[in-house]
Design goal:
By secondary structure, the chain is an alpha/beta fold. It has helices at 8-19, 53-69, 85-97, 114-122, 146-161, 180-193, 210-224, 237-249, 265-273, 284-299, 303-309, 338-342, 349-352, 358-363, and strands at 2-3, 41-46, 75-80, 102-105, 127-130, 140-144, 169-174, 198-204, 231-234, 279-282, 312-314, 322-327, 329-332. The strands form three sheets. The protein has an eight-stranded mixed β-sheet, sandwiched between helices. The chain has a three-stranded parallel β-sheet with strand order 8-7-9, with helices on both faces. The chain has a two-stranded antiparallel ribbon with strand order 10-13. Helix 6 (180-193) links the parallel strand 7 (169-174) and strand 8 (198-204). Bound molecules: beta-D-glucopyranose (BGC).
């Protein structure tokens, strides 16, 4: 799926044909909605609420960016499916019925959503897959390099555990099986972990829910014994929180290294006080702003701009050479909190250093 490099000849061809208005950016001849001005309506479908990124960052940043690209005339209709694929299909149908100009969808179930993507496409509404690669005839995809996310998590865990051999036991807490990102995170992590440690227990966590991760971790602890767990690969911060709760409930006082992803505020604070080892900082502004730019360019018929925003290419199980943008990621540890989430104004130092974290902040040089 990770196929970033494209030949110059191929990209030039797409650019020139799309530029002449012969083909749309995905290279097929089905026409997109006619060119619009600033009065665009963008449908935004986000997948769940148990992890904080969607309501805290993705939605507000997309909304703001659409506003600034359209001189305040553009609208974002936002729905969150709360981890329910059937709800998301209904929400998408509603957006089709309301004749939005373009849909950005972060799928609960990337396979299941294909029928809805096709319906939108048949109604002349372009669909851009946001963060998770939806199946079906999508026009473009915006995400991070998700296999790299897993590689960085796996490598960080190995480094943090230090003295290990192939009998060293770890637990893997992977994401939802309906999310293709979860599979990529896992693949990336396994490429670093296989052959170096024993994966004593591995779970695919239903709906990415922290409570489910907590229950799975409790089961892993009874099977393996808390003192035999040298590290935990948790695919994101919400689940890292559940894993920590299970370990603490089992009486563990010195926690093993635990990974995460998303740079949630609670995780940044846990990294500060050493409860969580690391997270992955993915620049939400970069992803969300690019998504807004792609959506607006698509409906305004700015094909050259759209192609410039989607120079990567990915394949889904149902479509080849999908125009894409994959944003880079950074490992977030205690050492670079200031250079990442603070520098990018994701959080202020006073938000991070509130209450009991004040002392940790001064020792980490966060002022
Ligand atoms: C996203 C992660 C997120 C997870 C749970 C994934 O598709 O890439 O950032 O933590 O879903 O919502």
């Amino acid at each position: 799926m990770r196929r970033i490099a494209i030949s110059v000849a191929a990209s030039t061809m797409t650019l020139s044909l799309a530029g002449c208005g012969v083909l749309n950016a995905s290279g097929d001849s089905a026409s997109a909605s006619p060119t619009k001005g600033n009065d665009v309506t963008i449908g935004l479908l986000l997948p769940e609420k148990a992890n904080t990124r969607y309501d805290d960052f993705d939605y507000p940043i997309i909304k703001k960016q659409v506003g600034s690209l359209t001189k305040g005339d553009g609208k974002v209709l936002y729905e969150n499916a709360d981890a329910d694929a059937a709800t998301q299909a209904k929400q998408m149908q509603q957006m089709i019925d309301e004749k939005v100009d373009v849909i950005l969808v972060d799928a609960v179930d990337s396979h299941g959503i294909a029928t809805s993507v096709k319906k939108a496409k048949d109604a002349g509404i372009p669909v851009i897959a946001y963060d998770r690669l939806a199946e079906g005839p999508i026009d473009a995809y915006i995400s991070f390099d998700n296999e790299l996310v897993g590689e960085v998590q796996g490598r960080s865990l190995i480094e943090a555990m230090g003295n290990i051999d192939t009998s060293t036991k770890i637990v893997m807490m992977n994401g939802s099986p309906t999310d293709p990102n979860a599979k990529q995170f896992k693949q990336g992590a396994l490429s670093e972990l296989n052959g170096k440690v024993t994966i004593a227990k591995s779970y695919d966590t239903k709906d990415w829910k922290p409570v489910n991760a907590q229950a799975n971790m409790a089961e892993a602890i009874s099977a393996i014994g808390a003192s035999n767990i040298a590290g935990v690969y948790a695919a994101n911060d919400g689940m890292a929180g559940g894993v920590i709760q299970a370990l603490e409930a089992a009486g563990v006082t010195k926690l093993p290294p635990i990974t995460g992803q998303d740079a949630e505020l609670a995780a940044v604070q846990r990294i500060l006080d050493g409860t969580q080892y690391m997270s992955i900082y993915k620049s939400y502004p970069q992803e969300a702003q690019a998504a807004a730019q792609m959506a607006v360019a698509r409906v305004q018929g700015k094909n050259i701009q759209f192609d410039a925003l989607t120079r990567d290419k990915v394949d889904s199980p149902t479509a080849k050479d999908i125009p894409a943008q994959l944003v880079a990621v950074t490992a977030l540890t205690k050492a670079n909190i200031k250079d990442t989430v603070v520098a990018d104004q994701i959080y202020t130092i006073s938000e991070i250093c509130a209450g009991k974290y004040k002392a940790e902040c001064s020792s980490a040089g966060l002022k």
